[in-house]
Amino acid sequence: MTAPDLLKPALYRAEGSDTDPDHPALLGGACECGHVFFPPQTYGCERCGRMSLATRALSGAGKLLASARVHLHGGKTRAAPFTIVSVRLDDGPIVRTLLAGDDAVHPGDRMVTMLVPVTNAEGAELLDLRFVPQR
Ligand SMILES: [Zn+2]
């Protein structure tokens, strides 16, 4: 049996990065000037303006900067409560996404990526990226 497809394969992959092979990598980019970014884009470096950007698999690990627990959500696609987290990846970029589970988290916590099963609008079973506190 093969694993379900990813919900957003342009943004992450099941395999880890070279620096963190144990957790799914985020797919970002890097410039010759050293600027590392996420999500991937082709508009040019946000720091120096160069157009020659390389793709880079970013470490699926980082430090929690902030979190927000959402108890009432106007959208019909996601049931509250849930928690949004801002994580500074070890590779530099800040990612804002969902926390997997209901564990309490605190700024400074080590966080890692994981893939969780989700159902898309068409009812297909897919995998989406979340962060969890590192055990
Ligand atoms: Zn640059």
Description:
By secondary structure, the chain is mainly β. The chain has one domain (26-133). Helix content is 0%, strand content 41%. The chain has no helices and eight strands. It has strands at 26-31, 36-37, 53-58, 61-70, 82-89, 94-98, 110-119, 125-133. A five-stranded antiparallel beta sheet has the order 6-5-4-7-8, with no helix packed on it. Strands 2-1-3 form a three-stranded antiparallel beta sheet, with no helix packed on it. The chain binds zinc ion. Zinc ion is lined by residues 31, 33, 35, 45, 47-48, 50.
What descriptors fit this protein?
three-stranded antiparallel sheet, mainly beta, globular, five-stranded antiparallel sheet, single chain, 0% helix, binds zinc ion, 135 residues
Would you spell out the secondary-structure blueprint of this structure?
Blueprint: E1 26-31, E2 36-37, E3 53-58, E4 61-70, E5 82-89, E6 94-98, E7 110-119, E8 125-133
Antiparallel strand pairs: 1-2, 1-3, 4-5, 4-7, 5-6, 7-8
Bound molecules: zinc ion.
Zinc ion binds at residues 31, 33, 35, 45, 47-48, 50.
